[in-house]
Structure formats: structure tokens, C-alpha cells
Amino acid sequence: MFPVSIKGVLQSPEGLVVLMLNERDEWELPGGRIELGETAPQCLAREIAEELAVDVSVGEPLDTYLFEVIPGKHVFIATYRCQLQGGFVPTISHEHKEIGLFEPSRLPANLPQGYRQSIGRALGS
């Protein structure tokens, strides 16, 4: 059995991709672990509100895959398209080091391939 993490592809009002810098100094999509009794969309809306202090609507699923976080430790990732609801004044939580806003054509090198593919699917590139 693997832990399950629900992640979202979210763009700022200017069309920039929202990423979070984690403790491993890797950029990742916002989102996190699903809790007992939650649906994947409920989990993702809650996690983004906790991590960024913004509201989103969760759209269709983009991808699922098994991700090796560190050697020997795997997490099942499910990614969804998200749409901003209301204003965008993100506030970073204690869970990450930094919020990053990136042009879709200029994603950072230290972004895992699975997240990169989900962004490509969400943006049609």
C-alpha cells in the first residue's frame, strides 16, 4: 500500500503555473495527502486553501502514477486541473519554502517529470 497524494495544476490570473518548493528543494504542484472520508477534489481544494490561502474549483483528472519520492519510498500521485475562484494573493504555509510562478514554457529544472507531464496535459502542450 502506498500513500496517496492529490496534486493540482493551477495558474495565476496572468497564466503562470503555481509551484511550491519542498524540503527536498524540488518544485512540486500544490496539494497533499488525502484524508479518510474525503474525495480527491475535496482533498485538493482543502490542501490548496491550506498551502496557499486561495480557493479553487477542481476539474477533471489529468494523470495518475507512482512517484519515487526518495529511493525506496513511493507515493501514488493523482493530478487534477484546478481553476482559481476569487482573488489570487497566495500566502505560503509552513509546509513549503517558497511559492513559485512560472511561465509554462520555462518550468524549473528541479520539477519532477510526472508533474511536468501533468502541466503539459492541463495546458494542452
UniProtKB/TrEMBL annotation:
Q: Which Gene3D superfamilies match?
A: Nucleoside Triphosphate Pyrophosphohydrolase
Cross-referenced InterPro entries: Nudix_hydrolase, NUDIX_hydrolase-like_dom_sf, NUDIX_hydrolase_dom
Keywords associated with the record? Hydrolase
Q: Which residues form the Nudix hydrolase domain?
A: 1-125
Q: Which Gene Ontology molecular function entries are recorded, alphabetically?
A: hydrolase activity
PANTHER family (alphabetical): ADP-RIBOSE PYROPHOSPHATASE, DIHYDRONEOPTERIN TRIPHOSPHATE DIPHOSPHATASE
The name on file for this protein is NUDIX hydrolase
**Which species is listed as the source?**
Pseudomonas fluorescens
